[in-house]
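Sample entry was shown:
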Amino acid sequence: MPIRFIGFCLMLLLSVYCRAGAAVRVIEYYGDSTVWGYATQTGGRVAKPAPAVFAEALPAAGKYEVRNEGVNGSTACELLNGTDGRHAPWRDQMAASRARYVLVNFAINDQWKHDVNSYAGCLRALARIAKAHGKQMIFETPNPTRDSGPDSLDVYVNAMRQVAAQEGLPVIDQYKYLTELLNGQSPYILCPDGLHPSERVYALKGRFAAKMFASYFPEK
């Protein structure tokens, strides 16, 4: 009887351990309308924004819950300050968050609303606050747009890369990936209105993000 009881206890402990190991990991995906999934033709939302495709393309996708936290027209500084119309100030947002991973994709609206030093400072603050709350921060560069060029969007993309290097953060470099895909063609090939991807390109972005995420954080 004692042996059977001990065996039962061991099985119970093993069951609890397995359930704990299989706990769903939350990924929060922050950004502007290109994260939210703005549809260029209709002004509504595409059926599958990039975070939805990302979620489906992750290895062992069932182990993750991906939350689309994109807000149309928003910037990194607005997310930090809690003025994007959806989220609390970032320190409060991170304190309440259950996410293990936090992805942040900004630059397109930032170039119109904030100088590059303010943008970089807000990115740095977002990263440090997330880290202080036990989150793994990941930066994601934006897709190329009609504003791509060495004196405009490129400056902000490079600032994000620089902050990531300084803070030791992984980068999902959509800008590099999609610029190489364009191979000298106009950004309008990817973004019919010059800013927002087509549904096909949203899918490309989601799959690329999943591939890079898996390379940074391989399943054990």
Remarks:
- The first helix runs from residue 2 to 21.
